[in-house]
Amino acid sequence: MNDKHKQLDWMVAQAKQGRMTRREFVGRTTALGVSAGLASALFGKAVQAQEAKKGGVIRVGMQGGESTNSLDPALAASEVPFQVNMTWGEMLCDVNPDGTIDPRIAEEISSNADATEWKFKIRAGVEYHGGGTVTAEDVVATLKRHTDEKAQSGALGIVQGITDMKAEGDMVTLKLNAANADLPFLMGDYHLIIQPGGGVDNPAAGIGAGPYQVVVNEPGVRHTFKKHANYFDSTIGHADEVEILVINDNTARTAALQSGQIHMINRVDPKIVDLLKGVPGVQIKAVPGRGHYVFIMHCDKAPFDNNDLRMALKLAINRGEMVEKILGGLGTPGNDFPINAAYPLFEDTFEQREYDAAKAAEYYAKSGHDGSPIVLATAPGAFPGAVDAANLFAASANAAGIPLQVKLEPDDGYWSNVWNVAPFCASYWGGRPVQDQMYSTAYLSTAEWNDTKFRNAKFDELLLAARGELDTAKRSGMYSEMAQILRDEGGLILPMFNDFVSGVSDNIGGWVDDPNGELMNGRAQVRCWLNA
Amino acid sequence: MHPILKLLVQRIALGLLLLLAVSAVIFLGVEALPGDTAQAILGQQATPEALANLREKMGLNEPPLTRYFQWLGGILTGDLGKALTNGADIAQSIGQRLGNTLFLAGCAAAISVPLAILLGLTAARHAGKWPDKVISGITLTTISLPEFVAAYFVIYIFTQLIPIFQPVAMVFPGMTFWAKLNAVALPVIVLVLVVLAHMMRMTRAAILNVMQSAYIETAELKGLSPMTVIWRHAFPNAIAPVVSVVMLNMAYLVVGVVVVEVVFGYNALGQYLVDHVTKRDLPVVQAVGLIFAAVYIFLNMLADIIGILANPRLRHPK
Lengths: 532, 318
Prior knowledge:
heterodimer; A: alpha+beta; D-Maltodextrin-Binding Protein, domain 2; Dipeptide-binding Protein, domain 1; 4 domains; nine-stranded mixed beta sheet; four-stranded antiparallel beta sheet; 19 helices; globular; B: MetI-like fold; 78% helix; 0% strand
């Protein structure tokens, strides 16, 4: 056997173990002279070869749980309650890793032509843990509960736009106050778990229609589950039992994974990722998410009201260096608009903007800036590594002849005195489930959090039109056009998106990178299986 | 009445009185915080009507004195109320966690107290020679390490180098006694390392102090072996200071080990208290505060009583 064959076999084995993504696999095998089509087919076969095994106990160790946590889905705000609720709960629909809708309790989803009225057909015979089946009335009662301010629901903003809810037979009809083609994605919000009777009597009962039922609920310590025998979907929920342990300490969590006491952990400290990569039996999964770190310029204040100057600054930042040094390689370079492949309806057709000192200098000269220092405000708390990132930016900009200066501000009061006030500062965004929400929150002319003071009539028009556009191809086209406008004219410098970094034991099969959320969007314990 | 019995009753009554005073201080402290429980629950959603309703429902309109006695009455009947954050019954949540706290403290004490006294006696016997120096050197090193550093060392050694224990030390009802012991092995090792030196040094110092006395010389001249002299003649007279240091360390093991709990994910009272303090869950903070105060008072009282019983002059007053 020659070397190429050996390498190919090795890569197929890696793919089988889930150690390589399709993109990596295709990239590396084509480098060996294999055609891209064949490589892709090989990858599909290798991954299929993994067969789900049933049984056993999957143990997850997580940061982000407190003894004050509740099983009430409306109140979930940190990582552990999210993961716990995804184990026992089921929503109308989920979002697949590729950004399509996965119908769960709703079997079919349809809307009228202008996306102001939506119909959800409820799947027949979906059983709750305590017996009884999910009805259309339960769905309406659940959504109603989240509209009540007393429920303190994290999904209040989502359900507020629903003006009328109706249950007829197995059909739920929702009328909206304005067109919204994204409603199915919003119904996949993790707060909107369908509960018997809407969970009005006892919202924290932990009774739902999900794949596992709650056995022990000790907030801040552990949550254990056993398989829901009558779960409607036999393709997931492989383990007999699931345990979620709250291990807030980084070292203990990592040590527990290494020693085999648990199978998965969230929030691996970026500083130790390189060390962990060499540990046998442990894999690091760095999954690109929607969170991103930014430098924002106010488009309505001098000197940032000049697009040539904005473009000079965009070209004067070294994105690759930022990802390497600030994120430890666990992220992807940004392209000056807040959307990446983690969003549904994203078209990856944009040229990556790179550091180009010569071009930056050219734009800078064209802007006619008087040479006075351009001040960038930053603080340690603006995002992890914000001060270092600002200094790297200043160094690369100075090399292009742009007089960028870093001004260090205190963390205290940064979000009230500097962000949205100073014309140029460091900040971050956590991302939103769909493009519309992200753009509406921060880039619409009238948005309260329009922190770049970006006002573009064409952009606003496209955003509003896209909300009522049900043809997904047309909508992605509109979103691409908006991204292009923002990328070339906006006040946003977005050097990097940060990853979700998890640690997974070799013993776990079925892992799929999911950009929607940490640990396979809260479902790793449900969708993975134990190999031995 | 026998004078000792009288003394005991006096001490216990004093302890109870002190506890009552502490409960009043805790209650007053919480009262003095800006805002009340209703505001803490409602947070940003606090409209005037919602506040009035909730205050009515929780009886917050009663005068403070009435509420103090209601709270006190609740505690005496085992009703500590419900947590504000997740509505869980406080007495039930505390019950199991207090058990875990006492289990961990008990295991650590069962190893560290005899070990510290034994090492203290040995060090006193060989005062100034190499065994004394080795014992003192090692224990002073371990006490000087911050708990979390010691914990990380212990995790590294016993889960990575010699994988015989588990790094996460949670215990649950339904586990066998041996399984529980195995689970808490690492935190117990850390706690023993932390408390050993203090008790050992005190034992050594107390015994060396007694060794200066004339009756020790008499015992030596009788031809008794040095260890017998220490054990039979010196140690009984050094008990009082040793016991008070032991009790101080026991109290620490119960109320002061939150760092160790966090590092090993151990589900006990300290972590529970900290979680609720950060969320301003006042009923829980009050209840746990009172329990910690009670533990301190009880252990100090015990040290006092043992000190009295060990002292012949106090045992047989003229």
